[in-house]
Amino acid sequence: MSPIVPRIARRFAILGSGLIRPRVSIDACARARLDLIRWAAAIGVLMTHIRSTMFVPFPDVSNKSVAARVFYAATGIGHLAVMVFFVLSGYLVGGRLLARYCSGNASIPRYLLDRFTRLYIVLIPALLITALFDRIGVGAFNANGVYSHSSVPEVPGIKYSILERLDLRHLLSNLCMLQQTLTPTYGSNAPLWSLANEFWYYLALPCLIVAADRTQRGSRRVSCLLALLAMVWALEGEILTYALVWGTGVGVAFLPRVPLRHIWVALLGFGAVALVSRAFDAAISRMGGARLAVDLTCALAFAAVLAAVVHRQGSTPVGRAAAIHERLAGVSYSAYAMHAPLLTLAVAALYDEFGIGLHMQPNAQGLLVYAAVLLGVAIVVGVLGGILEPRTEAVRGWLKRLLHVH
After folding, report:
1. How many domains does the structure of the chain reveal?
2. What's the predicted TM-score (pTM) here?
3. Which of 62, 64, 83, 196 is the most exposed place for a label (fewest CB within 10 A)?
4. Which tens digit of pLDDT belongs to each residue from 162-208?
């Protein structure tokens, strides 16, 4: 056994007698469930962003029927879905790195190359698509001020001037994952904020591991500690605080097989927490720091779901549905990173040409237009994701050969 194992295990064992060495073991059944969660969360983000852009805020709905309330509730889970992504990432990326490090077979250079490839194979095309679509929108469909933030009334889902964020400074900042820290997100692509969080968590975790490992050379430990301190000093506050949410996913890797055998129990608990947070969303938003506390509570509730999923392996036969889940999950990152500029262009064109697509009421016409835009955006980003994401491994292999990373 590597000498690293008992030392790291002892460090985490002080957090609670039930914690053990990190372990990330996922069979085909659990992977199918995780794929289902991934693509469902991506759809939740799309549904939320499209509804918040196209429809009036709920207080301005003329007929607050039960159907309208259900529609707004079902299409208001985008932020919660991002928290789910954070927890999944913490487990699948952070937990796996710790497990491999504790077993003595982790390669930090290979880990970093894998992470950078995964992020940038979609991020670079997403930025180019944002630049192209936003420039088309500014030139052809800005008569109502959608891109210049001068529309009356204001578009609820677009709270800033897209035109002012289309310069080279914003582009380079987002390319370097400094959105939120140096500049806001690029153009209309507001969802890119969370990619910066992921990027810096990917960097911080190996620095933390090496800095805490007494078997490493002193100079290496000091260098990693200084890198961590530099991140804490330089990065925007929410990137740092939401590391707690990402860390809940990492924590799942340290749990023993939980006694909670019924996934539905964990799902009901997560659903109850999500419903309460959604019901008091407006009040929570006004309370500042309460948002992080609520998001962390939701993350912990979902961590219970995640633990139940990965610990209850092999309980259901894997059939054709697993292949569908895998295919849809395989384009979920592209859907998240690319949908916003396409959505903005679509609704700006609809509004300029036909007077629909913005400031809509949740009536039959509004819901029909919403469904058409959702379907169209989902198809386009799905096709783009199907082109880009399957090439991740090929690009990784090429870079590993080029950089001699093993």
Report:
1. 1
2. 0.91
3. 62
4. 999 999 999 999 999 999 999 999 999 999 999 999 999 999 999 99
